[in-house]
């Protein structure tokens, strides 16, 4: 891996993790078309660490909410898990509910991993992401927040997050749009989408750490400074992406991302077909 590729992957992860364009899909495409002959063995640990870099971005951007959630969690336990009409306690329960749809995903984990080497599938999935973003413009303009949203709302947004484990389907796009369709205010839809991702993304990456380290031991190896560089780039670009997506969501449409996902999806499909023809 070169310095340029480390920076590129950090930018791709930081920007696409939070912009509604699918970080997993973009990492698959970049590593396949620019990363060499065996990207899975060389970059698995690098990918995991990039995700931790973007997790730090979420903590920084939403620290006020996260701090209140921690405070209310201990108060919630002290009060015998009574909500007492406190919005942040309801927020905690909603986040816990969003985790439930992720458990069935574990049953098809091996099948999902196979998709990460299928750039043709990723291209098609990006077109689905574009369609979801376009349809979100029809979402009702309601004002639900942590104090008024229901448990079913949280569960359905969690289902959108579970579907987004498929490479090419944007997690942020799917969960924000699901929140909008359930009547979340635009600000709360963004805050909830990012904060609810913390336990899932953190847990998923912890499960992958041991495998990633084992893969790194048998690969050619990546210098430590490239890991640090990639993490730093992912964190900084992630903060910029969060700021941008909040602005775009408040304006009420995702047209630029619809066009982008559509174009990247089409180009990926064409490139994948060409590569398969050449390899035949």
Tell me what the structure shows.
The structure is a single chain. By secondary structure, this protein is mainly α. The chain contains 13 helices and no strands. It has helices spanning 3-18, 23-34, 39-61, 63-78, 87-99, 103-107, 109-115, 119-135, 151-163, 171-181, 186-218, 224-251, 255-279. Helix 1 (3-18) runs parallel beside helix 12. It is globular. The two termini are 28 Å apart. The model is unreliable at 36-41 (pLDDT under 50).
Question: Nearest-angstrom radius of gyration?
Answer: 19 Å
Helix count, per DSSP?
13
Overall mean pLDDT stands at 86
Estimate the helix proportion, in percent. over 70%
Most strands sheet: none
Total DSSP E strands: 0
Give a quick set of tags describing it:
280 residues; mainly alpha; 0% strand
Short description, anyone?
This protein is mainly α.
List the helices and strands and how they pair.
Blueprint: H1 3-18, H2 23-34, H3 39-61, H4 63-78, H5 87-99, H6 103-107, H7 109-115, H8 119-135, H9 151-163, H10 171-181, H11 186-218, H12 224-251, H13 255-279
